[in-house]
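Journal club side-thread
Mid-discussion, someone asked how the predicted structure for our own chain would compare to the paper's figures. Pasting it here so we can look after the session.
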Amino acid sequence: MSKQELEVIGQDAACCEGLAAAPLDEERARELAKVFKALGDPVRLRLLSMIASRGEGGEVCVCELTPAFDLSQPTISHHLKLLRQAGLIDCERRGTWVYYWVLPGVLDRIAAFLSAPESAAGTAAMTATGATP
């Protein structure tokens, strides 16, 4: 068995900088757009959730994912392929089945990117409610 080499995005020093830390450069914006595009589909979001709910190091067989959807197996495989291409999950074939898992740290990096610094979050909340700092 051989594992396919996948590039995991966001593992450089800037991986943990949040959206409010500094404007994105063009390359970083392109990388993140792939991730958010993959997550922008309800089926793919559910698939990722089903895989991630197994916990760190947990994996799930495609045979357990497919029955949860009213979609054909090739369609489910296509969605899983897009999640893999976005660098969110990886897989391994074992016999006739394929097992999927979330790549380590990927969800934490996405969450860190989306989180705002405490002061910026507080100011935004106050502005949204009409309060003054």
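Post-session note: The chain is about 45% helix and 10% strand.
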